[in-house]
Amino acid sequence: MFNKKLMTIPGIKKLIIKISILAVIQALSIIAEAWFLSRALVNAWMLKKVTASIYPMLFFFIAFIIRYLITRIENQITDNFSDKASNDLKRALLEKTFELGPQSVAKLGSGQIITIALEGIDQIKNYLNLIILKTLNLAIIPWIILVAVFFVNALSGLVLLLVFPIIIYFMIILGIAARKKSDQQYLNFSKMSNNFINTLRGLKTLKLFGLSKIYGKNIFRVSENYRKSTMEVLKIALLSTFTLDFMTTISIAIVAVILGVRLINGSVLLFPALFALITAPDYFLPLRDYGNDYHATLDGKNALDHLTSILNTTSPAAQKQLNNFNSWNQQSTLKADHLSFKYDKENNQGVKDVSFNLTGNLKVGIVGQSGSGKSTMLNLLGGWLQPEDKDNFKINGEKTDSLAQFAWQKHLSYIPQNPYLFSGTIAENIAFYTPNASKDDIKKAAESAGLSEFINSLKDGLDTIIGRGGRGVSGGQAQRIALARVLLDDKREIILLDEPTAHLDIETEYELKQTMLPIFKNHLVIFATHRLHWMNEMDYILVMENGKLVEQGKPKDLLKQSGKYRQLVDEIGGENNNA
Amino acid sequence: MRNFFNKDTWIKPYLKKDKKLLFTAFSLGIVTIICSIGLMFVAGYLISRSATRPYNILIVYIPVILAQAFGTGRPVFQYLEQLTSHNWVLGVVSKLRQRLYITLEKGADFVGERFKLGNLLGVLSDDLEHLEDLYLKTIFPIITSYVTGIIIIILLGIVSIPYALFMFVCFAVILLVMPIISVIIFGKAKKYEKNLVANNYQNLTDATLGVTDWMISGRKTDFIGEGTKNDQKLAKSRNKVDHFEWNRDFALRGMIGIIIVGSIIWGNLYLNDSQSISNYIAAFVLGVFPLLDTFIPVSQAMENWPIYKESVNRLNGLSNKLDKAENNDNEANFDNNINSISMNDVSFKYADDNSAILNNISLNVKQGQKLAIIGPSGVGKTTLLQLLLGSINPTKGEVKLNNVKVTTLKNNRSNIFSVLDQKPFLFDTTIINNVMIGNEQATFAEAKQALAEVGLADYIETLPKQYDTDIDESGIKLSGGQRQRLAIARILLQDNPIVLLDEPTVGLDPITENNLINTLNRVLKNKTIIWVTHHLQGLSTMDEVIFLQKGTIQMDGSPDELYKNNEKYRKLYQMDQGIEN
Hints:
The complex is a heterodimer of chains A (579) and B (581). Chain A has 579 residues and is α/β, with parallel strands linked by helices.
């Protein structure tokens, strides 16, 4: 359960020292507690007056309070530690997400990142809270108690000492079998619960086919089968708790009986006997605590592993910085020089050996079938992926290995199929790249992006809240807001677009196109698309196939060549050719 | 609280089921606690009695036996208790799952979603787990602790009234006062935290889904700020609760310390008549210790009540809403001979909206005709399909199949309409099973034939397990186009006269889209088709095209007519086809 990665968390050594000291004090207070309680009980047994027991009772109570006060203090300092540690981990995760950019979301899924940042971090915190405290308690407390028992009554001490390895032995034997089974069942459970959700999701479909009523019985049957298999597993899984409990209680009973016999013999007195009996349960307590919460700590441990693996992925970052690139204009040049990138070492997806030259404010179309490497090209040009380690690009003659650098990215804007709208006002969304823009500039940008009619129809105008929890915005308007972003920041001379209109209805697409075309004129536009009418607007076309750049040139020239581009255009135009 | 339980239909009725098993579970729980107290009690007595050095070991024979019995009994009974209670609870949960399914089944609809599916279903299934925990971690420990507490007080009452009274007061604090305070404090904090967590969730979603924009904006500090906005408030609230919890547990343990000291004093004062009576002092005092393990967790068990309550409320709310939702019109008989489906001056307005989403729509589709409906998102295309299916009632006008109102068709509808939408749902089972859902009476050969018609057979036969390949998790991942083809095969087996297509090609690339449209045209040649779409690809094979705008029909006609007579249509068509003008 203990994870080596734990030792790398800052502050953990200090914590271990603190907790160890507290655990020693706690063990001593447990001994004191038992000692004075035994005193008081012996006094009472000897029919002394209650006044004779005042001090023992007082000291017992103080020791008892100190013991649990230490628990309270331990809770607080571990919590402070794990609070800080989990906060740091969350920050690190967010920093990594920022550095990884879209790649993190593509690899892990946005849902996963959010789950780790919320639930995962909580589980890690819980794990940190439990693991250090319980491990140290187990490592320290029983042994100090044992020494005290040996001092007072060696035979009881021997019984307690001997039982310990027996418990461990049984725990291991049963534990291995049971945990395997219970982990398996844990999987079964997620399976069944997924199956249940799955069926609920499919309700609409089942109803559509007139099967929904029959399936109700199926749910019950599956659930009952799960119950039966769970019960089989529980019978074994609970055995490990059973063994621990059984060995604990039975050894207390044995100690009691042995002491009883020795008392009758007169070889031992009541005081040491009571002392041994009272401390026996406390001797076993840390072990029982350690055995509990297995799944809680397991979840936390897995979450920590997962998080560490994310933190260890390398983020795209250029080795050679562009020092002279200040803006993109008519004279600027971008050269891709035998550019290659692979997603995995094993498979061949990615792009291979791509070279091209672009000069000035061009409209460049990247076309190709799904999976041909269009998006990868766009990601490389945006600096969201790190290409092979060599000089891949030349910008205005300056060499660099990768575009993953702010000097390049601050001149970019990116418009995907569904531009993401942040929760906030329309104005805030438009000013996303330039949070300090003036209201007037924002308004102007909105107008040029064709948003006037939409904004005027809103009661709060530019201050209308959109995004999650706000007003719904149609696909066409979202594209216009993204366009306004581009217009507001005049340093962003390069626009990357990934199928921005494919999902829009034809009329919206038509209107949007009329707005987009004039904006494109004084920008470098790199446009991945499948739509024929967009291809016709481009100055230059890159045709991708299986990760390779198979053709490039002006669209009209390419059409005449009846090569790959021609073939693609015919296939997309589809309906007129084949039925 | 009482109000809550009066209206509840998700906990109370199930406590009355399998009473014997439930009673056994409770009894075993109580016996377990008694055994652990008994062990320490007997052990204390045993050594005290032995210390008086009886002449014969047989004098302490009974305590020796009892010590062994309690020592063995505690783990054994606990083991049995856990098995019985789990068995009972899992049995109840099976019934609850079925109940949830039946409840949701009433509200499920052919088209559109009454519930925001993904999220809500996850929440509901979590709710069932909460109920499981409610029984196992709250109801069971609380009832066993309470009953044991009462038994102890009664037994002590027989021994000594003052001692029983003292214990009663202490128990009341531990089992009643503290748990109630816990519930109040936790309830408040959980509510406050829930909002913060929801907000956090939203901020993180913004941060991650918009990460590309964040990255090129260079606003790293803002990005991290966004993701950790509520953390401090949340940590503060959690810290407050944690502090309360630590202090409470400390106080509860202090109470146990007081009980122990009280017991010693009581023993000193009341059990001092003779040596044989004073032997019991250690017994009573040691018997208090097991209460640390059994009574203190009661407060913890109550903590989660606010979460459980929310779950139970949600389930109750759901069943209240949906149990009423079933309408009671008589079911019309229908013999699958469809002549036409028509809308007559139909308007529709959602109850929560200000204005109608559809206004005075009339259309008539004859058997075998093919109609396409185009319009921007949010214009009411899906609502129109729901009206045609009779899933919702028009605010004005009528939707009729031949001369029968569609809303009266009910269960017959699954023999009249087939629906293909953007994301057809495939079950986590084999390919062939997924197709057979279309018609469970179909033969394997028929299902195979359907898959061949939609052009999937060749691909499937290259798979190692062919038609028995599992979809998704354990098997293959199908592409968007393949999933649609599978769903079409299902519809072919179902063989209903009217097919509704709800933007089935959204999100596919144009080449895949073309191929799919060609397949649809081929295999559904003889069916009546109503096709909602967003662009013009594939429209040339339709008999009629309708453009919806602002809730009304804006253009209407056959594709050829429209191309000839309508300039707007012509412009759109030229752009769509990439024809330069």
